[in-house]
Amino acid sequence: MNRTADDDGVRVGATATAFEIVQALKELDGAGVSAVARHIDTPKTTVFDHLKTLEELGYVTTAGDEYRIGAGFLELGGYARNQMTVFEVGKPQVDTLAGKTDQHANLMIEEHGVGVFLYTAAGENTVRLDTYAGRQVHLQTTALGKSILAYTPRDWVEAILNRHGMPAITDRTITDREELFEELASIRERGYATDKEERVNGMWCIGAPITNSDNEAVGAVSVSAPKNQVQGERFRETLPNQVQGTANVIEVNLTYS
Q1: Is 4 a domain residue?
Q2: How far does Cα 173 stand from its chain's mean position?
Q3: Is 106 helix (H, G, I), strand (E, B) or coil?
């Protein structure tokens, strides 16, 4: 669990600018120098110098006048993920969960106060989603994230909310702090979280925490599906049992890893 949600530190200007430019390329889905400069309100000459340096280092590519994020970041992300025991242990179980449910199965951790998808697997009966390894989301918007928050000390949760806020992604997203804490208490009582179109319209989700010996979340697993495919007993009992069972297997395997 990351404990630095509101830590202060020394920020190096050039480093911060470089990553603001990279983030702008992601948000703009590729862009030219002028568009990036406008997006982050930075002089074009500064943006150009950073982009050319990033290109020389292999982290940015060009197509005409447009810059895009390069595969250099993919190598770093893959390396970081492979160093995480929860990924190594969780991946085969998430694959199994996707196969059993014929839906999307997901593995998430919290880092710097946001939810990060570590791994996703698709069953045969799936729809296209915007989730992928490395995708970051606000924790209160997903069953995965709420599972993690429910097993996180309240002061850490407060720090996360203070830093990142509670934006409405859909009209069903929880945006009230006290409502969220009531929801987290309910999650602890039943052992799993639900998400009914709170981040993606038309999608329902069941998530369960992966906890350590202190009963604090180190991650979460979930199943996501179109709401018309997970009605009734399947949503109330079958999927929760399958998701919680997967989380439990991962917990046991982590203990002996």
Answers
A1: no
A2: 16
A3: strand
